[in-house]
Amino acid sequence: MYEGRAYVGTEPPRTAMPSQIISHISIADADWAATPEIPLNPGLVAIIGARGSGKTALANMIAAGCDAITPSGWSASENASPSFLVRARKLVGNATATLTWGGGATNTRALDGRDANNHLSFPRARYLSQQFVEELCSSGGFSDGLIAEIERVIFESHSDDQRDGAIDFD
């Protein structure tokens, strides 16, 4: 039986293409990583753990492996960035994250950002930091970040053919 967001049965329904699902993350050259091999559930929607257990670090490593951290995110000040990887850049050393996708493809990225956003890379996921989500959900009304995210979602929901040559929402 499957309705809406809940499913009861022996196996969950398959909804995404295997090539779009991260099945595993491997962290190499990182003696600081207590669990360097982490299989991921194809239905992963949340990372749960105690404060300081590495939830943000894991999310950042997955984002780095997906080329989902923007150039401005990598170049942010270590003192002001919400990114674990940027704040810990000096301690990360030569560590890398390798993502294995459900279709078998892998991609490896340096966790200090040195090989990020090259001419062959493209974001395979959208990373929203906790700070960004908190801003979007604040009761303070519409923020520039919320408006920009709504515009991005609307723009990206249209195919190139439907955009009439527009390169962005504006």
The low-confidence runs, each spanning 5 or more residues with pLDDT under 50, are: none
Q: How many runs of DSSP E, i.e. beta strands? A: 6
How is the largest sheet built, in terms of strand order?
4-3-5-6
| Mean of residue pLDDT values | 82
Question: How is the main sheet built?
Answer: 4 strands, antiparallel
Q: What would the principal axes of the Cα set say about the shape?
A: globular
Number of helices: 6
SSE ordering: EEEEHHHHEEHH
Strand proportion, as a percent range, falls in 5-15%
Give the tally of structural domains.
2
End-to-end Cα distance? 43 Å
Quaternary class: single chain
Rg from alpha-carbon coordinates: 18 Å
**Structural class of the secondary elements?**
alpha+beta
Percent in helix: 25-40%
Question: Can you offer a commentary on this structure?
Answer:
The longest helix is centred in the last third of the chain and has 13 residues. Strand 1 and strand 2 form a beta hairpin. The chain has 2 domains: 113 residues, no CATH class; 43 residues, no CATH class. The strands form 2 sheets. Strands 4-3-5-6 form a 4-stranded antiparallel sheet, covered by helices on one side. The protein is 25% helix and 15% strand. It is an alpha+beta fold and 170 residues long.
